[in-house]
Specification:
With 448 residues, this protein is an alpha+beta fold. 48% of the residues lie in helices and 21% in strands. The chain contains 15 helices and eleven strands. β7 (166-175) and β8 form a beta hairpin. The radius of gyration is 35 Å and the shape is extended. It starts with a strand and ends with a helix.
Length: 448
Amino acid sequence: MTTVEKISGCRVKLSFAVPAEQFENAMNKAYLQNRGKINVPGFRKGKAPRHIIEQMYGKYVFVEDALDVVFPEVYSAAIEENELRPVGQPSMVDMGEYKRGEEMTFAIEVDVRPEVELGEYKGLSVEVEPKHEVEDEEVDERIQQELKDAARTIDVTDRTVDYNDTVNLDYAGSVDGVAFQGGTAQGQTLVIGSGQFIPGFEEQMVGMAIGEERDLQVKFPEQYHSEELAGKDAVFHVKVNSITYTEVPELDDDFAQDKGFDTVDEYRADVRAQLEKRAQRNYDVTVENALIEAAAANATVEIPESMIQEQVSYILRDMEYRMMMQGMNMDMFLQYTGQTREQLAAQYHDQGEQRCKIELTLEAIRKAEAVEPTEEAVDAQIAQQAERMGREVEEFRASLTDEQRSYLTDTAAIQMVCDLLKAGATVTEKVAEEAPAEETAAEETDAE
């Protein structure tokens, strides 16, 4: 038997009374699991009867382990029966005395997903940044990047080193005939004209052939990072191993046709359309976020600390993943910033709490409005995700696990809630503030 007592808006107390027979079975299981660890004089290890062990160590010797045996079953049943949604781990707050042949009582407390008291969420008014307008320069930048992405690396066999070539070389540097630390390398890659090496080095390699060796006379800068080499004359003996260059395609109709268009103008128009589509999508997300935050600000909810800490953990894991992508890790970051992980987590407490409130508010609106995603809405999410991943829709759909499809179903429901918020909302765009008259006059005077 289980009773539920609400302690607060986000915490409950569950009191259990486990029937004597059920708990006695759990005690026997605990005895069988542990008897091999207990030494009893006169018995081989693991062969002492339960009552002998209880006489030596007390009748409670197996009670905690018996609770571990019985708890998962009775706890799951209580959660399901009372339709509770726990967050965080339960904690024991009370345990009755064990008496053989009698029911065993104990109580736990656990945080549960709180109920939200919704405020206004329809007909909201929000102010957002204006939608980004795509400029010609952005279109040109995107096209130049796509040209670079389509570039080919070509091996050179019939000419000598020239500017913009990529050279693979060996080199050995010396000052007054003595090699210096860090001045020798093999298989080094260098783009001629990049300024990667000290002045004069790259220029003197122009005209060298594959396999050719040459002594380059150079002078280290006066402000060089190594004081031992600053301002010194040096000789680098170099050998060219290979020469390559990058061939970037011309922006012409042939390139446009490779991209699936008849002419450059059609290709350029499509690039602009894609940029404008992204700008519109970003603007829509900005509006939706503003409306969600406004609805959450109008809602009232008591959020359990365990739920906030779970969100903070998500934030820190995301940080750690992005650090890994940049060749760092959390330990390096903490050492560099002089923080502990606890101090870093504390900085994100408010953000974690806001994320929880937004999540709970969206869930409450979905429940209040009985929002259930249609097949069409789910299909739209599947198509969008497939597009983001560059995969065919049907192939992507077939690869989805039940968990992934459930996630996309929830995403579709959230989008329907966002559409509901937008339907009656008033959205205005922020206007850039004009400079004060005094400041404008000052600028004009300076210009004169």
